[in-house]
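Message: A physicist's question: would you kindly supply an amino acid chain plus fold tokens?
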Amino acid sequence: MEKTVVSITNLLKQFPVGGDFFTALKDVNLKLNEGGFLGLVGPSGSGKTTLLNIIGGLDSPTQGDVHVLGHSMDNTSHNERARLRRKYMGFIFQSYNLLPVYTVFENVELPLILNNIDPNEREKLVSEAIEAVGLSHRRNARPTTLSGGESQRTAIARAIVHKPALILADEPTANLDAENSHHIMKILVELNKELTSSFVFATHDEKIMGYLKRIVYLEDGQIIKDETIK
């Protein structure tokens, strides 16, 4: 029996604007099983990043049930959500979010330090993650000396170093050219196979879509199509 990683029922998300509300998501129902490779696709303002943030516990629903990795995200404290993210999730952002004073190795190591992993185990896990994204030769470089593709690969290594059950990626190829975009996606496809981690992308980059196993199309905050790719 397949394990459900994300389960969303009757999701509504509204933001206060002046004296009124802006509805970012409405009537959203979504289920993702272990090992999924799913893209939330739609134009700017369709709600895909908001939905990704709710799945990751970075934002809360206005109404509805959101269960991630067996935990109710709408009935979970801020600290508990932070613990879930730290232990079981990895995040890849379009802006990389690398710490400039740290080397590639130290940036990738950070989640393991936060999870109190033993130093010897940290060395092994970081080396494996950096090798997986093809950056072993750059392990002592600082972010200011990296290309865009190398920066994004460092961010991916940081996201996968603790072997999370769920990896969330927000426009991960937006700042990359076509060659780097395809290189990044091939790495992520391989990691999806090797780690059995589930991936959720928020994107409108057509270069990503050819790699996805499933595409959920959003428009005006609603799912208009849910397509499994053969």
